[in-house]
Amino acid sequence: MQFLKTFWPLPFKVRPKDVTSLVVQLIIAVVVCAVFGLLIGLLAWIPIAGILFGLVGSLVELYGLIDIVLCVLIFLDLLK
User: Could you tell me how far CA 18 lies from the centroid of its own chain?
Assistant: First the structure.
């Protein structure tokens, strides 16, 4: 569990059964993913670096997805 708290600290700010904290964290996660996705999408057209930016974009989106899943699990009190 300490591993999760080290790499994904934001979902652990969600309190179980507190809709406001869940919504705030979900909005933060979606906005960050959207901004990084837009930035990486603009940089991905560069021929050689585009491959690297595509990989980084995939990792950022995966991080955001895991962040959202952890938020929901903590909200439902399935993860302590």
Answer: 19
Q: Which residue in this structure is represented by tokens 């990792």?
A: 59
CB 43 within 8 A of CB 49: yes
Residue 37 CB neighbours (<10 A)? 14
Q: Is the pTM of this model over 0.90?
A: no
CB < 8 Å & 24+ apart, contacts of 6-11 = 8/63, 8/66, 8/67, 8/70, 10/67, 10/71, 11/67, 11/70, 11/71, 11/73, 11/74
Summarised one tens digit per residue, pLDDT across range 39-66 is: 988 888 888 888 888 888 889 999 999 9
